[in-house]
Task: structure prediction
Amino acid sequence: MGSFYMDCNMKILISIILLWFASFALAINTKTLSFGEAYSKLFGHHNIHLSGKDHHVRLLLDRSSGSGFISSDMYQYGLFSASIKLPSDYTAGVVVAFYTSNGDVFEKNHDELDFEFLGNIKGKEWRVQTNIYGNGSTSRGREERYFLPFDPTKEFYRYSILWTNETIMFYIDQTPIREVRRTETMGGDYPSKPMSLYATIWDASNWATSGGKYKVNYKYSPFTSEFRDLSLVGCRVDPIQMLPTSSNNCTVSNSDLMATGLSVMTQEKRKAMHTFRENFMSYSACYDTLRYPEKLPECEIVEAENRWFKENGRLKSRHRRRQKNSRARFHTTVNSSLGQKWVM
Result:
């Protein structure tokens, strides 16, 4: 029975990876913007390099500093998307972040939506973390962490944050990996104020890898993260008045957002999301009952997921071993079936 389950699960996994391969040819249906059209350098100016007619951005971290850029406008809801390639080799302590925030404007009650990529020692895989803050709720982190079913240092993969007044969805290529639906009980914890888009690389030696056990080793620097196919679809907001720059702008952006198809959660997408989470999610605040004895209001406890986790929100040993074996079989099967070399 166990073998049958693994074989069926592997078929589902392969179907997901085929969807990812297909997504390379199916770019998200939005206009990509050059750096000068929509972004500004934020810090570490000397470590920001543009190429490809300003459609390709390299962010470097070295001994002198990290680097980052910010969108020129703030947005009230929208789609924020980029194809990203991460640094390779020894990357412990390094964090690459792609996120929305308004912390520069609302210092005490900011909102934030995060993709954070956490580096590792040589031979160990990168992990990705998603997080949500609303109204300065930094004491109530809503982290989830995942392994990746591919090597994010070898190729570009698209990461997208979809934010509407009703739902938040995180995508990798065409596959949703997390959905948060707004509930009345969330109140101000649901991000609702205009935000800017940020992309950064920085030294997080104090926490990023094994709780700070492994630090950034600058003999491997510069650490280079690459961004391209940058897309912004949303209602631009005046940063002073916090009002839309024009009603037409919001109408057009809402139409463009719907045209991407990413705001619709189909049955197929939900199935793909569940399979991804079963095989690659390693932590969820929703299942961390030690940290949150009373579950966070937006958490929908999925019993099939709940049984994978210990009371601290981390994987049970049995499921961690099964997940690791599943990932290993997954790579072996995909390599054999598709002739592609994917290394975790």
Notes: The chain is about 25% helix and 35% strand. The longest helix spans residues 2-25.
